[in-house]
Amino acid sequence: MGESSNDASESLVDKDEFHDGLPTAFNEALFPESSQQTLKAGIGAKALDSYMNDDPTNIDARAESVAYVLRQANIAYRNDSVYSVVIKPKSKRAPSGDVHDYTSLARYYWKNPDTEDGLPYVRHDGKSNPDMESVWDYRLLRKVFRDCYYMAHGYFWTGETRYAEKIVSRVKEWFLEEATHMNPNLKYGSLIFGTEMGRAQGILDMFKVFGMFDALKMIEGSAAMKAEPQIIPDLQRWFNSYLEWINASPEATQERNAHNNHGTYFTVQYISILEFLGRNEEATAMAKDAKDRRVGSQIRRDGAQPHETIRPVSYFYSTFNLQGLMLLSMQAESHGVDLWNHKGPIESKTMRLNGLQKPVDVEVGGGTIEDAVRYLADYGSRDISEWPYPDAGGRSLKDVLSMARTASLIYKSDFWPELIERLEDKLGETAVQGEGKGDGQAVVEDGEPNGFLCELGFLSKASLWHCYR
């Protein structure tokens, strides 16, 4: 199939007030031949055929996932608002005063109730301050990545060229254009009101950049990319400058040395940028380093993640970190490094976290990523009261179910079908009961129906795309 999708059948285009003919559903007849060949090359023709036909539910999963992708892609395409760091109110600019400096606010810091001006802000771990939304940069940066990812999938599955054109426009607007670009640093990420510099935690704001890199790879053969031959070299210059800043930043060094989800996602971000820059030897070295630095030191032999279970929102952060470790394992596999089966040595570590009166000694090491997925899936299939750690947050069972299904593909262990069935039953049960967020309730509305896309990414060892959530 060529790039144009103007011959899309009437039943597959929006019939709402937009009347713009954007596709809304998967149509085998309109599936671009180039995308079909990319899938076969990434996964292998026989493996792809087996995946799609051995389990009939995968056909329905493809239809559901592509329909979801197209809904998101169409929303993104139709959004003509400006995405830029320069549009935030003057009162919310970085302490530098430079309109091009990115700024975000610390999530868990609140006004001091004991002082007239609210300073210094005080930390309430696990309790998000809605004032974060008063500075738009974080939300807009994540929208750039998310919009690009879903529009690229829209292009991949339908050949609709307008998605590719909008991706190019968004990337240039945020990173490259003189009037709207972001400076290549996160100096003022996770800023606490009343301070002059951001914090190490702000480095995490950029970790989903891999979604944009995946998008650019998916549309690399499009007319939109061919019309902008400088976009990749210019963007590579931006990210080279960004890595230079990271390498010189004390805050980034602190994040690099973190032992929990912050360290995990630092490595995810750094490797994805190295790959985009073509610095594959460095990416491979970082993947090897992640064996003990990220995987071995974070998973206990029973599958618990002690650096996350010590948090007041322990199930959520265990899920979040494990998603990162699986993403990191996917990256490492593309460099010939096996993180999936790595176990670290069993050791005792002393941990201290904000809110704890004194350090605590905990056991770390001895478990694999499969152990960690099994641990969360097992407790996810039980009553929330059985979770053995304090937890003030919610559980996204859809995310855990997606990880369990992916783990069953990777490890093929006999226990996965039964455990997945239990988790599916629990998810259905909580949906009927209408359980909601907070107070340890299972969250059933969270999570996106893109497990099919994630599984294709894992099966391709990241040669197609990564799992974006």
From TrEMBL:
Q: Which domain of life is it from?
A: Eukaryota
The record's keywords, sorted A to Z, are: Lyase, Signal
Give a yes or no for keyword Plastid in this entry. no
The Alginate lyase domain covers: 90-344
InterPro entries registered for this protein in UniProt: Alginate_lyase_dom (IPR008397), Chondroitin_lyas (IPR008929)
Is Transcription among this UniProt entry's keywords?
Answer: no
Q: What's the protein here called?
A: Alginate lyase domain-containing protein
Q: Which Gene3D superfamilies match?
A: Chondroitin AC/alginate lyase (1.50.10.100)
Q: What is the species listed in this Swiss-Prot or TrEMBL entry?
A: Linnemannia gamsii
